[in-house]
Amino acid sequence: MHRSHSRQQDHAWQTVSFSNSQGRRLAGLFYACSDMDSALIVCHGFSGSKEGGGRALRMAEYLARPGMGILLFDFSGNGESEGAFAETTLSGQMEDLSFAADWCRARGARRLAGMGRSFGGTTLLCQAALDGRFEAVSTWATPVYPLQLFRGFLREESKNRIILAGEDGTIELKRKFMDDLAEHDVAACAAGIPPRPLLIVHGERDEIVPPREAEAIREAAASSSRLHLIPEADHRFSTGVETVWELCRQWLEESLG
Question: Which of 43, 165, 176, 224 matches a 20 to 30 Å C-alpha distance to 31?
Answer without folding.
Answer: 224
